[in-house]
Amino acid sequence: MAEQMEELLQQANHLYLKGDYAGAVRICRQALAVEETSKGLVLLGEVTEACGNLTQALQEYRRALDLDPNNTRAEEHIGRLALRQATMLSGSSAERHPLTAILLSALLPGMGELYNLQFVKGGVILFVYILVFFKLLLLTGYMFAGYNRTGAFNLSPAWLPLLLLSIALWGFSVYDSFVGARSE
What confidence score (pLDDT) does residue 164 get? Predict the structure, then answer.
């Protein structure tokens, strides 16, 4: 009887690892019908958790802990699920809105990344963009100042690459902030 239950649990674990969650749940329930063990209930909890049914998984882990109060695996799963549910309820992993991130990056590159809590990336993009922007302003001022004196534009060779860099940085920031907001 115990051998049959152990064999069924191995089959269920194999199906679970392959991603066949429905088959794993079915075999787990067959094993638990033979003999209800803490090990079987933990496996059933893991499979139902993988299916996204956190409430059912928590119930299975608690039943496993009732059968074996020393089951540390069940305790770990219960603690992790409780923490996950508390995080979801508290909103500490609040969803970022992609449109807000895009608008912030369009306004000032790097701000969308900062909104997405990507502080290092956002800070670097913002710093580089500000440096490039002020250098462009400076070169543009020199260009127009030269026009007033000579009647021709005095275009610096660095002006066009800096303009292209600022446009590329702006485009990257808008795209990256959108992707960053969607991935959270």
Answer: 92
